[in-house]
DNA sequence: ACCTGAACACCGTTCAAGT
DNA sequence: ACCTGAACACCGTTCAAGT
């Protein structure tokens, strides 16, 4: 029945997807795992580290390949697949500007400056998209039907 | 002695600049103003709204003018001038994608797509810069001396 | 190694009541 | 109109102790 570090990350991602970042507390993750809050600190030094591990897992399946535009779309899809995924990944990535796997792979494919610019754009646009869609779902905002196309056009602007 | 809504925003910005977003709680803002936490809710419906008002104030002095690159630099400077300013402004702006003053003015100067791309890039790069510098100050990270130049090069990439 | 139980120092927000 | 006082339902984290 003993949990591993990966179990903790999985539990945290389930809580994130079900309740959103706002309610993804250490206490909720613990109760998702059927364990006391303090037990989590055996696997992870603090919440920030747990969030970084969650971010890694969210983008784990993203292959950069040989087409920057395709890579950008893949990254975007991976983040949109989890509730508040863009927020989690963007925040964690800002902390390691210049030494994330994806930024490095993109830099080899193009240039360091383009890689960073592209990545920041993808994060920003996807974060905004996800927030906007959530607000629309609650009915606070009218849904903008053009966000996917807006993303593609901005991407073209950068890669042109 | 009675506070106004503007006093609350000013107090909140003082707390933000002194302690950072993490510690900018309603309770601290209240104590900065010498008032009970509950008193804030007379001026502001919730913390999110207060943060949006703070964001407006941070970028209030930014003039778009007739040069997109200059506008981008001005926006960046305004956000860097306040501790965690980029975080506050970026989060608030994601909520109103497509109807912020600066995005609209930039859109008239260029095109809607370019305005949005530019804005998201400025937010992303400035957020990362600010985080990175804070981490460097605490000694967690080696300072990257090139962040200002990196910003300018990315800007060129987009505006070219 | 993995976890419990209890504690510490906090949160945002509501609401009746005061002036 | 502006604020107090008290309460409610939470936080992240630490630490001695159990198995």
From TrEMBL, chains A, B:
<feature type="DNA-binding region" description="H-T-H motif">
    <location>
        <begin position="25"/>
        <end position="44"/>
    </location>
</feature>
<dbReference type="GO" id="GO:0003677">
    <property type="term" value="F:DNA binding"/>
</dbReference>
<dbReference type="InterPro" id="IPR009057">
    <property type="entry name" value="Homeodomain-like_sf"/>
</dbReference>
<keyword id="KW-0238">DNA-binding</keyword>
<dbReference type="InterPro" id="IPR036271">
    <property type="entry name" value="Tet_transcr_reg_TetR-rel_C_sf"/>
</dbReference>
<protein>
    <submittedName>
        <fullName>Transcriptional regulator, TetR family</fullName>
    </submittedName>
</protein>
<feature type="domain" description="HTH tetR-type">
    <location>
        <begin position="2"/>
        <end position="62"/>
    </location>
</feature>
<dbReference type="Pfam" id="PF00440">
    <property type="entry name" value="TetR_N"/>
</dbReference>
<dbReference type="InterPro" id="IPR001647">
    <property type="entry name" value="HTH_TetR"/>
</dbReference>
């Amino acid at each position: 029945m003993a949990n591993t570090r990966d179990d903790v990350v999985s539990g945290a991602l389930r809580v994130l997807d079900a309740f959103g970042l706002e309610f993804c507390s250490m206490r909720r993750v613990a109760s998702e795992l059927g364990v006391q809050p303090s037990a989590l600190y055996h696997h992870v030094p603090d919440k920030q580290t747990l969030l970084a591990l969650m971010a890694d897992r969210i983008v784990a399946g993203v292959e950069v390949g040989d087409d920057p535009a395709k890579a950008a779309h893949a990254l975007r899809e991976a983040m949109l697949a989890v509730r508040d995924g863009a927020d989690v990944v963007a925040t964690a990535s800002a902390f390691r500007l210049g030494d994330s796997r994806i930024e490095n792979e993109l830099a080899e494919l193009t240039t360091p400056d383009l890689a960073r610019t592209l990545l920041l754009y993808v994060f920003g646009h996807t974060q905004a998209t996800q927030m906007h869609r959530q607000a629309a779902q609650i009915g606070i905002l009218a849904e903008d039907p053009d966000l996917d196309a807006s993303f593609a056009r901005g991407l073209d602007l950068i890669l042109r």
